[in-house]
Every structure is written in C-alpha cells, then in structure tokens.
Design brief:
about 350 residues, Acyl-CoA dehydrogenase, globular, alpha+beta, acyl-CoA dehydrogenase activity, Butyryl-CoA Dehydrogenase, subunit A, domain 3
Amino acid sequence: MRLAYTEDQELFRDTVRDFLADRCTTADVRAAWAADTAISARWVELAKVGVTGIVIPEEHDGLGMGDEELAAVLVEAGRAALPEPLLESAVAAGLLAEFAPDAGWLAEIAAGRAAASVLLPGQRLAVEAAAADVLVIGLADGDLHVATPADCVLTARRSVDRSRKLFTVDFTPTARTLVASDTRRALARAADRGALGAAAQLLGLTRRMLDITVEYAKQRVQRGVPIGSHQSVQHHLANVLIKLEFARPVVLRAAYSLARDLPSAGRDVSMAKIYAGEAADLAARNCLQVHGAIGYTEEHDLQLFMKRAWALGTAWGDAGVHRDRIAADLLGDAPAPPTPAF
C-alpha cells in the first residue's frame, strides 16, 4: 500500500490547484454568498479541465478516474472554498453511471452543460437542488429515482456558509422517475464517497486557514514584534499542523480502500471523516484565536473558510455518527451506512 499520490495524480491535482487559485478567489466565493446559486460560468471552465467528469466513464466523455483522484481534487476545492457542488455532482454521477448510464446526463455533466445534486437516505437537505439540472434521489427502501427540480417541491434553507444553497426536497416517487430497485449497497457506497469527499475538502480548508493565519502572524505587530514570534502563538499553529499531518494519511487510506472496494472501506471512510473534521475544527478555533475578533467579521476572509469547515463537519455524517459506525464494526455488529446530515 502506498499512501501517496502518483506522479499523474499530482500533476492533475496541481493543475486544479492553479486553476482555482486564478478562478476561485475569495472575491468569487463572496459573490456566491450573494447569488441565488453558486453554479456559475466557472462550472464550464471546470469541465474543460476535466473536473466535472472526473468519475464519469470515458465512454460518456468523462475521465474515468476513481476515488483517489476525486479526493485529491476535492482537497484543492476545499483549499479554495469552491462554491460549486462538485462533490454532490460526483456522487450523483457515480449512481447515474451504475444505474442510468443511457439517460444522457453523464455526458452533459462531463461537459459542464449540466450539474447534478443528490439526496440519499438520511439526508434532510440537498445542495443546489433548485439550480441542478438533475436530482438523484435514493430512498430508504432501496429505490433509486432520477428527477428534475420540476418534479419536486423545493424549499430553501439557509446554511451557516451561505455559498452552500440548501433545499428540502418534497418528492413523490413515480414509475417514470424510478431507475432501479434494491440499490442499498450502492447507496451506502455513494454515502461513503460523499463522506470521503467532505473529509478531503476539510483537509484543504484546514491548510488554507493555517496559511492565512501564519501570514497574519508574520505581519501583525504588537509591542514592536510580530505576534508570530511569541511561543504561545507558534504552539497554537503547530498544533493545527500536527492535526493536519495526522489526518492526511487517514484520508488517503480511505480513498485507497474505497477505490478498491475493500472490506474495511466503510470504517476507513468514517475514520477519515473524524480525523479531518477534528483537524478543521481545531484550525477554526486556533486560527480565530490568533486573529482575535477580526477573524469572525464578514469583512475578513478567514470566516469564509471557517464557515465552510463548520458546514462540512456535519455534512455526510458528523463525528458522532461515524464513531458509532466504527464501534459497531469493531464490535461485530452489522455496520449501518453513515447517516448523512447537514
């Protein structure tokens, strides 16, 4: 087992990082806060880089990559606080590829002409459900439906991170929207992909909050010296870095296991979500403390990344859900899929 990216994976990751550094600035994230939808012209540009079709099979104009490459890209999406529903669209695309490959949606998503959202058993809210072109809805009985926003009654709900456009979905299943039955295993794997993706984004968010705060500590002068010269500040930031470095291989392991459908994949994903969530939570608290009161004002960029971290910390199952899942697995009980929540 090699818990590191290959040369090709690093090249793709770096390409996405450079693109987002130029096309997803904090000003762009703020614009998404004010807009009705976070899906913008950047979605088509992401498609040209190959990002929107990363898990879509090549025969449907995608890249045909897997969870390891998706996780690498989502770390960069987190670093930039990318507002578009890249993870949700990837989870939906995976289900479409398995159960409705001929519906025509896959090539549209890969080309950036369509975006998808997903609602799995246990989820209360769907991201960008109103602006998405297709909604993939999994029910508790295992039925899988493919619908459009016109098939649903959508009610907007406000998130702590206002670039995440959340909706409740009132949906009445019909024979027209049903594409498959008895898909519980696939739905559980889709939930794992979602949890892994959230963990990967939390890694990127942690790194970005740390970078912002290190730079601030170098520039902020108090009593004639930069505050970063004080050991107490250094310890706060070093503790964040330690958490980040411990979480990184756990996320890599989860991506490795999920990509190969290993028996431990579910447990590994839960471990990744816990570790990445703890790292991001510590980063938010310590970085805010170093900044002081200015850090949580809307005028400061730090709050953009803190609020995304808070939102993703509970998305796709919070720490309590995943700890219970690990305990059930270790004690020999039948492990239930994580309960995604927002």
